[in-house]
Amino acid sequence: MDTITAIILAIVEGITEFIPVSSTGHMILTTRLLGFEEQDNLMKTFEIVIQLGAILAIALIYWRRILNLLGIGRKKERAGVMPRSRLNLIHVLLGIVPALAVAFFARDFIKSLFGASTVLWALVAGGILMIVAEWVNKRKVRITAHELDDLSYGQALAIGLYQIISVLWPGFSRSGSTISGGMLSGVSYKASADFSFLIAIPIMCAASGYELLDSYKDITGDTIGIFAIGFLVSFVVAYLVVILFMRLIQKIRLTHFAIYRFLLAAFFWLFVMR
């Protein structure tokens, strides 16, 4: 792997990790385009490292919320100044435990599903779910959680259960399934995105850390430079993408991402897979 390849992959990771287009799917398709084997050990380790860069970016964006959840640095509540946050660690646990449990017990099965053709079908299926979620959220569901602190335990659990789909189906998109799950459960688009990004930190740390236990030996004096470049580029790109996404969230609908997913799947099916 050369520097240009590392930068390309890190940019793809940074752009796609937190928006509902599937970073796993994009990485599988990109590595295929670049000519890498899907089972290449060095590539797998590199993907873990750049994913950690993206995690650091989201942690930096939500650092105040994280400290509040941990009870660190929280100011004393004063009337009319700073109401105590109602989102707590129970919400986070409900949002991540179902997916972590499935990932732990079905790890080998999930790995057997990784492949370009699986991703293409997942891109389409995930896009359909996103369109349905947006339509239902606008017309059929009464929104009870407009902000992150309005989230109920039941809604947090529903989002966690929807996240299982992305665990079992590579390419479906973790953020796509969680944001859609939130919107189908009466959570606003913005609050669903906020919660999706927030629970990404522990679940991605757990998944990446577990995988890194098998792959850390690939980080050597010869590869550390490439890994460092990938980590830094992924961090910067992911930070900018999430900030931009949250600022434009009222203009960029789930349907727009769904259409992109359909076009990407069609492109690869017609011009790459054949």
Structural commentary:
With 274 residues, the protein is mainly alpha-helical. It has one domain (3-69, 86-271). 72% of the residues lie in helices and 0% in strands. The longest helix is centred in the C-terminal third of the chain and has 27 residues, at 189-215. The protein is globular.
Mind sketching the topology for me?
Elements: H1 3-16, H2 23-34, H3 41-61, H4 63-69, H5 89-105, H6 107-112, H7 116-139, H8 153-168, H9 174-184, H10 189-215, H11 224-247, H12 254-271
Helix pairs in contact: 1-2, 1-3, 1-11, 2-7, 3-10, 3-11, 5-8, 5-10, 7-9, 7-12, 8-9, 9-10
Overall pLDDT level: 88
Which residues sit in consecutive blocks of at least 5 with pLDDT less than 50?
A: none
Sheet-strand content, in percent, reads under 5%
Let me know the largest β-sheet: none
> How many distinct helices?
12
* N-end to C-end Cα span: 26 Å
List key phrases describing it.
274 residues, mainly alpha, globular, cell membrane, UppP, Undecaprenyl-diphosphatase, transferase
Summarize the structure.
With 274 residues, this protein is mainly alpha-helical. 72% of the residues lie in helices and 0% in strands.
